[in-house]
């Protein structure tokens, strides 16, 4: 039986009154395997009359409902006086037009999909060798004298703790746009790398020395605890010092800030180039920000899920400028977005995306802002 809470979410969705949080809860509920039969019974009992002319395909209805929910998440208020346009919801289509008309509506697209030209994840070894890593393949990573350092299986590379090295030797992983990759370091620390990220790290940490890595881009760290060897992440001027914790750090060159979000444990953020060696300590649920222009640090409370949802292939924006959004879209979809509408870059949006294509994402924005765009190969031009 569908709970009153979920049924309320469905009703509010059909009335186009859902909040972003309610849309998230509804889509997550539908995707849970244990709710499949409940959803099927609900569809059959509540839509039996309205779609009796066409036998309901519950799986297709579920898929299309999820797709429409994702599109509708972008309908939260944009920070201008312009009223958002009303969206057509799958619920109204189901109730009024029947499943076949719904399918026709969902299948239509007025834009050409971009051609995503994939690049490989690259590993660069200390001796200068550069090797591609296939997400579907496997590879043995060896030292220059042939010793096994690590093993790659799919989108994860695991380093061994061998005690064989007497001096530090670094490898660098480079993750292109449109890809993600995971690395397990020799101490057991897990690092989840987002698109457009590079990480330089020792193939094995040495006894008695701090564990240090160097990041450009965005990564989530689950640091193995070792009180004798602090773990340090270097990102431009910023140095993060931890013992054992979980946190997300975002440092993309095009962004004005370096952001660190603490999920669990504790972390200290230091600026190594300041005369007074400025530092702050974070508690879980807090975000530390370093402004590159003002050279100032600040702390604020955040919803950590918003900043870590990319690990589940989701993008969540809250009061974000379109400029920052399009940069994130470029990385996720491996496209170039050229915006010729200067005012649009400064507009702020709340939006959530996961299963949508880049074309569907742009259509969502075009519903709430007067903009046109065209897709030419791997480039998007907004006019």
From TrEMBL:
What keywords does the record list, in alphabetical order? Membrane, Transmembrane, Transmembrane helix
Q: Which domain of life is it from?
A: Bacteria
| Gene Ontology MF term list | sigma factor antagonist activity
Signal sequence extent: none
Stored Gene3D superfamilies: 2.60.120.1440, 3.55.50.30
Q: Which residues cross the membrane?
A: 84-102
The record places domain Protein FecR C-terminal at 314-382
Q: Which residues form the FecR protein domain?
A: 172-268
Coiled coil (UniProt feature): none
PANTHER family reported in the protein's UniProt record: PERIPLASMIC SIGNAL SENSOR AND SIGMA FACTOR ACTIVATOR FECR-RELATED, PROTEIN FECR
What's this protein's name? DUF4974 domain-containing protein
Asked if the keyword Membrane belongs to this entry, the reply reads yes
Organism of origin is: Flagellimonas sediminis
């Amino acid at each position: 039986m569908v709970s009153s809470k979920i049924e309320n979410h469905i009703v509010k969705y059909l009335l186009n009154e859902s909040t972003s949080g309610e849309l998230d809860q509804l889509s997550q509920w539908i995707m849970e395997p244990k709710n499949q039969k409940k959803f099927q019974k609900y569809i059959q009992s509540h839509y039996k009359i309205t779609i009796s002319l066409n036998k309901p395909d519950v799986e297709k209805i579920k898929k299309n409902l999820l797709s429409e929910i994702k599109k509708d998440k972008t309908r939260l208020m944009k920070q201008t006086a312009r009223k958002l346009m009303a969206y057509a919801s799958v619920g109204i289509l189901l109730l009024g037009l029947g499943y076949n008309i719904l399918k026709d509506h969902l299948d239509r697209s007025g834009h050409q999909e971009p051609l995503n030209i994939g690049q490989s994840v690259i590993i660069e070894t200390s001796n200068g060798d550069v090797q591609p890593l296939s997400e579907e393949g496997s590879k043995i990573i060896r030292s220059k004298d042939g010793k096994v350092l690590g093993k790659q299986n799919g989108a994860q590379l695991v380093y061994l703790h061998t005690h064989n090295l007497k001096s530090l030797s670094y490898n660098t992983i480079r993750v292109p746009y449109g890809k993600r990759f995971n690395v397990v370091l020799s101490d057991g620390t897990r690092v989840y790398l987002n698109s457009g990220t590079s990480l330089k790290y020792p193939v094995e940490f040495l006894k008695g020395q701090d564990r240090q890595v160097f990041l450009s881009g965005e990564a989530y760290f689950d640091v193995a605890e070792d009180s004798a060897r602090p773990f340090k992440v270097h990102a431009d001027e910023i140095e993060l010092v931890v013992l054992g914790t979980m946190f997300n750090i975002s440092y993309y060159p095009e962004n004005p800030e370096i952001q660190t979000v603490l999920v669990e444990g504790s972390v200290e953020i230091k600026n190594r180039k300041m005369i007074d060696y400025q530092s702050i300590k974070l508690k879980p649920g807090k975000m530390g920000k370093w402004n590159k222009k003002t050279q100032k640090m600040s702390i604020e409370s955040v919803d950590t899920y918003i900043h870590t949802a990319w690990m589940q292939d989701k993008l969540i924006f809250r009061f974000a400028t379109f400029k920052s959004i399009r940069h994130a879209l470029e990385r996720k979809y491996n496209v170039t977005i050229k915006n010729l509408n200067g005012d649009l870059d400064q507009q702020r949006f709340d939006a959530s995306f996961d299963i949508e294509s880049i074309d569907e994402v742009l259509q969502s924005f075009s519903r709430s802002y007067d903009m046109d765009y065209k897709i030419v190969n791997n480039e998007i031009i907004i006019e």
